[in-house]
């Protein structure tokens, strides 16, 4: 295929390398002729580096570069051009001008694709005489390494174009997901579940940013915590995406932004690129400095009484017994015992009131954390600090002499604790995408694991918990907080009631919203 790429910036040069590596002939043009030369030099350097590292041969690198044809003008006539991929500035007027000139220069049979990440594909297409020839083809940076591309049909896009683009993407070794033309498309929309909930937890002083990141990494298995991720992406970019998607979905509670971000953006606390964000960065150290955790100060000898609160109780008892804890088997906690409650969408304070437990000696434990390297305790404003220190020591105890001690985080009491709220939000946002028919369950999970690097797709992740238990969690979060942010989706509720999984698309005869 002969592909013309208009825009030789970061994304355009990456798309050019991607397409040429796959064997396509690529025309590369830009209104700034010098940008094309810079892009060619960059691609040459990347290919030379790949050859030096043995990822390709010198001959293959030379052949790939030879397939990229620099243009003096992006509007040059081209009867053989089958596809145009526009990677110009993220501005509707700019893109409309680009496609208007291309429509005059190229055959009517040439398919147009826009790499927009935030504009409506339908709006861009509407500026053309024939809007049916344009679709979205959204790549991620760096294009050769981020092996996911979103195929986005506009409202008027011809039916044959999305499958054609998806086949092209798959033929290069990348994965294609088809998604409706909605704010954030798929990956950016699905990614709001993690960061918006992390910001809500920080707003409520449940834990600080490093503490939330530790739990996200060690309990949920994320490669990077949400605040580290925002610093990497840039808080200015993250905040703009959050606001765009929230406004686009008519102020959906599930996507609600935080009051924390505007002032930080205004102050220039954007993350790695400004030297300071949620973390500080040194001039030669692109990674945030490790924030030390408080040492374990309790002796771990205090007896432990475990409340019978259903799911999680037996796992907590087993973990304590394996760690050598002294268990208090009384009907209520003894005078010197610490009372532990396995919370699931609820708070420690609710358990204290409902079970008549001693407020100063009662803490919560997140069952999600028990099988992981980090266990999470929740303390209330009434918790005695010495009791909390002893509870932390008890949970830190290794399972046997060969095991390392567990890390133990103490957070402020909140419905569901940190990991449960993060996971519930990740799953809920993905379920709302599926519920609206904006993408298939399989494409949602593929896009998130490939584009965001999560250990599981959000719907498959929810299935590891089980739809009935996940519904119980979200119902408890909704009831306990009263916040419509946590209202269970119809997608989850129906599947829990019908014994279906979240990844099951079902046999619905109803039309899709996209």
UniProtKB/TrEMBL annotation:
Domain of life: Bacteria
Domain spans labelled 3-hydroxyacyl-CoA dehydrogenase C-terminal: 184-281, 417-499
3-hydroxyacyl-CoA dehydrogenase NAD binding domain span: 3-181
Pathway terms, separated by semicolons: Lipid metabolism; butanoate metabolism
InterPro entries according to UniProt: 3-OHacyl-CoA_DH_NAD-bd, 3HC_DH_C, 6-PGluconate_DH-like_C_sf, 6PGD_dom2, NAD(P)-bd_dom_sf
Record-listed E.C. numbers: 1.1.1.35
Molecular function terms from GO: (3S)-3-hydroxyacyl-CoA dehydrogenase (NAD+) activity
UniProt keywords, alphabetically: Oxidoreductase
Pfam families in the record: 3HCDH (PF00725), 3HCDH_N (PF02737)
NCBIfam families for this protein: PRK08268.1
Family: Belongs to the 3-hydroxyacyl-CoA dehydrogenase family.
Protein name, UniProt field: 3-hydroxyacyl-CoA dehydrogenase
């Amino acid at each position: 295929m002969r592909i013309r790429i208009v825009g030789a910036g970061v994304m355009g040069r990456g798309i050019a390398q991607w397409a040429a590596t796959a064997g396509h002939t690529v025309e590369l043009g830009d209104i700034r002729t010098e940008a094309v030369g810079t892009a060619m030099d960059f691609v040459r350097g990347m290919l030379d580096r790949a050859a030096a590292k043995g990822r390709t041969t010198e001959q293959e690198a030379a052949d790939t570069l030879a397939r990229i044809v620099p243009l003096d003008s992006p509007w040059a006539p081209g009867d053989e051009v089958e596809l145009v991929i526009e990677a110009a500035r993220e501005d509707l007027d700019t893109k409309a001008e680009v496609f208007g000139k291309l429509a005059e220069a190229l055959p009517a049979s040439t398919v147009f694709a826009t790499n927009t990440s935030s504009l409506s594909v339908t709006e861009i297409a509407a500026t053309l005489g024939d809007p049916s020839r344009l679709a979205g083809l959204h790549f991620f940076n760096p294009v050769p390494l981020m092996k996911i591309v979103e195929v986005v049909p506009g409202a008027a896009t011809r039916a044959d174009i999305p499958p054609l683009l998806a086949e092209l993407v798959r033929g290069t070794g990348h994965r294609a997901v088809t998604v409706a033309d909605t704010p954030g498309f798929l990956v950016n929309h699905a990614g709001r579940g993690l960061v918006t909930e992390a910001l809500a937890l920080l707003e409520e002083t449940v834990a600080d940013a490093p503490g939330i990141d530790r739990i996200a990494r060690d309990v949920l298995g994320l490669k990077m915590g949400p605040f580290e991720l925002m610093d990497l992406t840039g808080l200015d970019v993250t905040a703009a995406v959050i606001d765009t998607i929230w406004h686009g979905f008519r102020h959906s509670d599930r996507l609600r932004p935080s009051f924390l971000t505007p002032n930080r953006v205004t102050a220039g606390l954007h993350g790695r690129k400004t030297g300071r964000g949620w973390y500080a960065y040194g001039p030669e150290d692109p990674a945030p400095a490790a924030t030390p955790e408080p040492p374990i100060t309790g002796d771990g000898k205090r007896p432990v009484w475990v409340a019978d609160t259903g799911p999680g109780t037996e796992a907590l008892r087993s973990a304590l017994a394996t760690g050598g804890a002294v268990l208090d088997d009384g009907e209520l906690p003894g005078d010197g015992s610490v009372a532990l409650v396995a919370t699931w969408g609820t708070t420690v304070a609710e358990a204290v009131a409902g079970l008549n437990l001693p407020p100063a000696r009662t803490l919560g434990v997140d069952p999600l954390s028990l099988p992981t390297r980090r266990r999470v305790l929740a303390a209330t404003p009434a918790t005695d600090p010495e009791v909390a220190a002893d509870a932390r020591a008890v949970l830190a105890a290794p399972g046997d002499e060969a095991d390392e001690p567990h890390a133990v985080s103490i957070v402020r009491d909140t419905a569901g604790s940190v990991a449960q709220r993060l996971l519930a939000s990740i799953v809920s946002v993905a379920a709302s995408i599926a519920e609206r028919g904006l993408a298939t369950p399989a494409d949602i999970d593929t896009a998130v694991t490939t584009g965001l690097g999560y250990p599981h797709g959000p719907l498959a992740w929810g299935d590891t918990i089980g739809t009935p238990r996940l519904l119980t969690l979200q119902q408890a979060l909704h009831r306990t907080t009263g916040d419509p942010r946590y209202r269970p989706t119809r997608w989850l509720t129906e599947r829990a009631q019908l014994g279906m999984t979240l990844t099951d698309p079902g046999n619905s005869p109803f039309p899709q919203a996209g």
